[in-house]
Amino acid sequence: MGGDPGRAGPGLDVAMTEAVPRTRRARFRAVARAVRSGLAAVGAGAVLAVAFPEVDWGWAAWVGLVPALLVLRRASTAGEAAARGWLVGVGFLTAVQYWLVPALGVFFPLATALLALLWAPWGVLVRWLLAPPLSPGRAVTAIGGVAAGWVLIEAARSWPVLGGPWAALGTSQWRYPPLLGLAAVGGMWLVGFAVVAVNTAVVVLLTGAGPRARAVGLVAALLLLGAGPAWHASQPDSRPVAVRVALVQPGPVVDRAERLAVGERMTRALAAQEPDLVVWGESSVGYDLDRHPDVLARLVETARAVRADLLVNVDAERVTGRIAKVSVLVGPDGIEGEYVKTRLVPFGEYVPLRDQLGWLSRVTRATDQDRQRGSGPRALRAGHLTVAPLTCFESTFPDLARAAARNQVQLIAYQSSTWMFQHTWGPEQQAALGAVRAVETGRPTVQAALTGVSAAFDAHGRRLAWLGTEHRGALVVDVPLERRDTVYVRLGDLVPLLALLALVVIGTAHFRGRRTVSGSRG
Fold first, then answer.
1. What residues does 416 pair with on adjacent strands?
2. Can you tell me the mean pLDDT for 295-324?
């Protein structure tokens, strides 16, 4: 009773002494748990890379997102889910686009971290929609909502200044024309929606509250897996007339004079195979044809020797003083048409906000002069063939191929050069996009690569030819000229808009439900 109130007793001293280590241990465990969950999120995002070339396990995309969904579902707060979603994006982008390091240098981690922020709100969305208990009704909402959110991420990063929709999840199915069938209806967006929805359905199947919810997951997965093949099987497989196309791949020849000479030599050697069109890769001609009539004369003579039009690609300073990437169709009588590259590579061919960011040209491989920009796809006439040339980076954008198809072209020809990424996964990832663009547009596609992969696909996305990065030479392929306007060509990019509408409806219904519950309690 008479103790000093300002003096702690021995029992309290012991308790405080023991509490300090316990607090430290708790903090350490919390940090360790955060690190483990962060690494799990990065790894869960990175594992999706195996669905793309070069590993090319496209089938893995249908279940490869399950680990990421489970990691996000287990987040204890919305903030934690946002952080994990961001880390999923970091892991995914780093794994599928690591080959950009030579171009971006030390800025690659920063660019990846900024772009991955698009996945942060998706992480919150996944946690909310997949939170237990998953009833049958909530399972249906989760399957559609999670997939819709992913589609919006890809639509947002398709903005050219952000690098375009590279490695969109739907493009991982390029090897499987039946599974790619939905691209004819809603483009790569709809294929990606189906892939993410199946992954979400698998999570529902694993975690649903009761047999009915799990049955919803099973049925949804089977329906979504079968939708593409069903559409593919419903399309008529006609036997159209074929055109013989030669794709010239000289390899990484740096000197422009030698590069031109190699292209000429390889093309003249094709005369006996009687091609209808010869396609050269991007930057195959390093001379402006107006300034160098002698080079134009050589190309005309080559066209006469092979008795076919040449589609070359000029990368040179024009008489205007601007550098441009120009696809030029050269025939026996001279130039028959031109197309100027429309969608330029940010930092590679122009620097956004150059007044503020131009200094990047001094510390990275960012261009020191902006290229001239074209006005859109054009249809060029090569004899009886109507062709739309597009250049390299433009193969990632479905809207350009769709615009070309609306011009009623018979063939879409991509001209590419990936010399900077020659021994990475980049060339194969890009060439694979030709199959997706073919299914979307109902037109065959070809790609002639200066250094990368040259390839050809029919209008159903079936691979006709493939010349890998290790090869040098010309590839001659008979391409069936099937031309059909797909639903995607007629209606365009409706899937991202529908995805946005779906999330608005889901969010509105949720908040109305909360108000109703709050009102009844009041």
1. 449
2. 93
